[in-house]
Design a protein that fits this description.
Blueprint lengths: L4 E7 L6 E7 L2 E5 L1 E4 L11 H6 L5 E4 H6 L3 H6 L3 H5 L5 E4 L2 H6 L2 E6 L2 E5 L6 E4 L1 H11 L3 E3 L11 H21 L6 E6 L5 H14 L3 E4 L8 H11 L9 E3 L5 H9 L4 E4 L1 H7 L2 E4 L2 E4 L19 H5 L2 H9 L4 H27 L2 H21 L1
Parallel strand pairs: 4-14, 5-6, 6-10, 10-11, 11-12, 12-13, 13-14
Antiparallel strand pairs: 1-2, 2-3, 7-8, 8-9, 15-16
């Protein structure tokens, strides 16, 4: 079975953006690409067919959650994650490190790994670099991630330095532990908003030589402008011939800013989480579907969208579903939001290919400022 490869097809002259193709054993992906999050082996409320119809090419599943339930051994026994999920396209799994630090009750962290209590049943679990890789090899995703230490921002420099040192050490151990040649193991760059620490971490990871590199530790407490500034100063320093993955970031404006800074892959729970909470992304801005002004609004969520929700249902009907607490409401809003995100990435790729990404970015920045001004007046 072939492994994972990456090629750059075109570059944008006005920014650092790249148009690429990521080939995996389960299909090719056009980059830049947005990756919907299927935390426990499912994107909440959506079937694989609905995801495909919305334009999804790759999904993310969470190592921490799947290792606790149903267990990586169970998934492997049932034929691996692709078969388990009935998803025959590419899958990316993270290492579970962020969830250990954000969800579990940490008992101990040391240079060898972390010991924590499961948020499900309180049992003690040990996760070290070798086990993080073994779990992901059992799950069988196409792209897997090293175990890292993520410091929540703002953080003291000493905390960031410790997290960087452990991330580098664990990355080397993950690389040595990998046995499957059909999976691409990405390194994760930590360092918070400190550019020098980011460079130090990246240089050490490049020396280990990974087929791809991820930027972790953002969207964990810093402001969007701080994140954009860090990416603008750092993104282009990552290896030119390897895919660059920005973890856990997903506002539409953040995506295009990051693409312009040279990033290729993105994941975030925002489109489905917002969908479940009655928020819909549209070309004209965000709709708050519980608002009374949509009570008799017979228009689709977005008149420029061809997704299933927009083809069949009105804003008034969606509002009714949310007010009636019908589960169809979150499902339809999530379908639309996923479709919107994929449409946004197609627009970005088209602008990149045409050399007009800088113009699209300027338009998006202007729309963002106008929306912020409108929200401030409300």
């Amino acid at each position: 079975m072939p492994g994972v490869s990456f090629e750059i097809i075109a570059r944008d002259g006005g920014t650092r953006a790249r148009l690429g193709r990521l080939a995996t054993p389960h299909g090719q992906i056009s980059t830049p690409v947005f990756i919907p999050v299927g935390t426990r082996g499912a994107v909440k409320g959506l079937t694989p067919d609905q995801l495909r119809d919305a334009g999804t090419e790759i999904v993310l599943a969470n190592t921490y959650h799947l290792a606790l339930r149903p267990g990586a051994e169970t998934v492997a026994e049932l034929g691996g994650l692709h078969r388990f999920m009935s998803w025959d396209a590419p899958i990316l799994t993270d290492s579970g490190g962020y969830q250990v630090f954000s969800l579990a009750t940490l008992v101990e962290i040391d240079d060898g790994g972390v010991t924590f209590r499961s948020h499900l049943d309180g049992r003690l679990v040990r996760l070290d670099p070798g086990r993080a890789v073994r779990i992901q090899e059992q799950l069988g995703a196409d792209v897997i991630l090293v175990l890292d230490e993520c410091a929540r921002l703002p953080a003291e420099r000493t905390d960031l330095e410790r997290a960087v040192a452990r991330t580098i050490r664990w990355a080397a151990e993950c690389r040595r532990a990998q046995t499957r040649p059909d999976q691409a193991l990405f390194g994760i760059v930590q360092g918070g908003l400190d550019l020098d620490l980011r460079r130090r971490c990246l240089d050490a990871l490049v020396a280990i030589d990974f087929p791809g590199y991820a930027v972790g530790g953002l969207s964990v407490g810093e402001g969007p402008e701080e994140m954009a500034a860090l990416l603008d100063a750092f993104g282009w320093r990552m290896p030119e011939d390897r895919p660059r993955y920005l973890m856990g970031v997903g506002r539409p404006i953040d995506l295009i800013r990051a693409v312009a800074a040279g990033m290729d892959l993105f994941d975030c729970v925002l489109p489905t989480r917002n969908g479940r909470n009655s928020f819909a992304f549209t070309a004209a801005g965000t709709l708050r579907l519980r608002n009374a002004k949509y009570r008799t609004d017979d228009r689709p969520l977005d008149e420029t969208c061809g997704c299933y929700a927009c083809r069949r249902f009105s804003r008034a009907y969606l509002r009714h579903l949310f007010l009636a607490d019908e589960m169809l409401g979150p499902i339809l809003a999530s379908i639309h939001n996923i479709a919107y995100y994929h449409h946004w990435m197609r627009r970005i790729r088209a602008a990149l290919a045409a050399g007009t990404l800088a113009r699209l970015l300027a338009d998006a920045e202007a729309a963002e400022k106008a929306a912020a001004h409108e929200d401030a007046e409300c």
